[in-house]
Specification:
The structure holds two protein chains of two kinds.
Chain A lengths: L4 E3 L2 E5 L4 E6 L4 E9 L5 E8 L4 E4 L2 E6 L4 E6 L8 E9 L6 E3 L3 E6 L1
Parallel strand pairs in A: 2-11
Antiparallel strand pairs in A: 1-3, 3-8, 4-5, 4-9, 6-7, 7-8, 9-10, 9-11
Chain B lengths: L3 E4 L2 E4 L5 E7 L5 E8 L3 E10 L2 E4 L7 E2 L9 E3 L8 E8 L8 E2 L3 E5 L1
Parallel strand pairs in B: 2-11
Antiparallel strand pairs in B: 1-3, 3-8, 4-5, 4-9, 5-6, 7-8, 9-10, 9-11
């Protein structure tokens, strides 16, 4: 069953702007991960944030996690046309081992 | 190079003709899974395996079979494909350790006519 729900479903911005995507989930998690998918291709792992972390950075990516609100956000700063892709959050449930449940994704279009 | 390899990448077949999509990983991962991706529905898990000879149903297992005879391979079998199985399929693998990422294959686009 799908645990994470991304918002918005689609986002269109200009190069140089920041893009923010949100993910809400329903049950307790061990960690939350963000993945990127270029059109029709495999998903690529971007960043993992553990349940005891509140913020994490990787290059132009910033992820926050609020376990009290059961939500996470992915911020891409100074976006580029090459950032155009779908972005998925995946929750790793607190089940004793690592398995992932994916949301439906946010489609990001960055125009030059 | 760490990778998950799926074959074929594209497949067009007719209703009822059995087919197998192969998946192989070179990372000695215990956990492997199959997903299908459909517009507006995101990724839905079909089957997963936590180790050799251990498989279990995901969210949408109907019409699919899997096997895990070796740790590196996890084929997806459609015994009698139907048009509603037209989809983009992904194999993924990961360690069973906590807080690890999943690695995905490049996908198999299946069309059943």
């Amino acid at each position: 069953s799908q645990q994470g729900e991304e918002d918005p479903q689609a986002l269109s911005i200009q190069e140089g702007e920041n893009a923010t995507m949100n993910c809400s989930y329903k049950t307790s998690i061990n960690n939350l991960q963000w993945y990127r998918q270029n059109s029709g291709r495999g998903l690529v792992h971007l960043i993992l944030i553990r349940s005891n972390e509140r913020e994490k950075h990787s290059g132009r990516l910033r992820v926050t996690l609020d376990t009290s609100k059961k939500s996470s956000s992915l911020l891409i700063t100074a976006s580029r046309a090459a950032d155009t892709a779908s972005y998925f959050c995946a929750t790793d449930l607190n089940s004793g081992y690592s398995t992932l449940t994916f949301g439906k994704g946010t489609m990001l279009l960055v125009s030059p | 190079e760490a990778q998950v390899t799926q074959n074929p990448r594209y497949l067009i077949t007719v209703t009822g003709k059995k087919l197998t999509v192969t998946c192989s990983q070179n990372m000695n991962h215990e956990y492997m899974s199959w997903y299908r991706q459909d517009p507006g529905l995101g990724l839905r898990q079909i089957y997963y395996s936590m180790n050799v000879e251990v498989t279990d149903k995901g969210d949408v297992p109907e019409g699919y079979k899997v096997s895990r005879k070796e740790k590196r391979n996890f084929p997806l079998i459609l015994e009698s494909p139907s048009p509603n199985q037209t989809s983009l399929y992904f194999c993924a693998s990961s360690s069973l350790l906590m807080n690890t990422e999943a690695f995905f294959g490049q996908g198999t686009r299946l069309t059943v006519v």
